[in-house]
Amino acid sequence: MIAADLAVTTLNLRDPVQAQAADEFVMGRADGTPFHRPAWLNAIASATGNPAHMLAAVAPSGKIRGLLPLTHMKSRLFGQAFVSSGFAVDGGVLAEDLRAAQALGAAAQDLARRGVGSVELRGGAAPSDEWVRHEGSHLGFSRPIAVDDEAELLSIPRKHRAELRKALANPALRMETGRTKRLIRDHYRVFSESVRNLGTPVFPARLFREVLDQFGDDADMLVIYEGDRPVSAVLTLYHRGRVMPFWGGGVADARRLRSNELMYYRLMGHGRTRGMTTFDFGRSKTGSGQAAWKKSFGFDPVPLAYHSWSAGGERRDINPNSPAYQRRVEYWKKLPLPIANLIGPWIARGLG
């Protein structure tokens, strides 16, 4: 597709030269996220089988002026769409100017018309007025990391700080960070139980391994143990000074132990030692207990807005607050954990 002095093409992310050019563009922009990076698209494609498309608006000189990462999500239960970015909480058009953004949006529409039908953008501005704005379903949370552990503790509201102090005083609780096979295994053990209890199918175990492999030092695991038992765990991304805990949770006993409070507090300190300055707590469903918990941790909610376009005027029903979605959640909570872990990855591949 041609738009004035721009050509929109699909990059080959398995080509090291093209992938590096895309990555340099993302890392050079303040509004770039980990979910715009080739590493994210490649990890999702390898782990779930959902095809990746990196659209690039390119000037005659060969310089990239905009990117739109797309994952082709496919599910018998939830339908299909091109999503920017699949399994992510951000993405969308990343462009130097409006012309590049419009060209990328039009190219995504052309791609969707060939059979997929719709496009979902999870961040950024709408490429044009043809896109529908969606807001009210999710909130974002972030704040600066304090200068040291004591200042971090004092930045947490009094009630929640008292709960955290109980965890800090528990000699049985300890933290480990890294990228070892044991930490990856223990993270999945905790995460799969946590999401089942929330009514959500668990992702394939390979997804977490692929993200760690693709991002290298820009991702790691943090696990809280009670003795030798993993009780809370999180996979974290690090991007342009931001600590971004992404896939985390705790076992049923985590509430009693306050191990989730301890985990995120320790992660703030871990991020500080890595030179990070902002703690990005990600998104939560509006009105959810998770959103209230983050607010009580000292994070102010910011409403998030997404955009979509559909050739037929309809979009996938993945709104967590819809009645149909809530019925699925309640059913999933009742499944035995072994069964949930067996069939969950098959369902979750098309949900992201």
Automatic annotation (TrEMBL):
User: Which part of the chain is the BioF2-like acetyltransferase domain?
Assistant: 159-295
**Any signal peptide, and if so, which residues?**
none
- InterPro entries per the UniProt record, alphabetical: Acyl_CoA_acyltransferase, BioF2-like_GNAT_dom, PEP-CTERM_FemAB-rel
* Pfam families to which the protein is assigned, alphabetical: Acetyltransf_6
What is the recorded name of this protein?
Answer: FemAB-related protein (PEP-CTERM system-associated)
- Give the species: Sphingobium vermicomposti
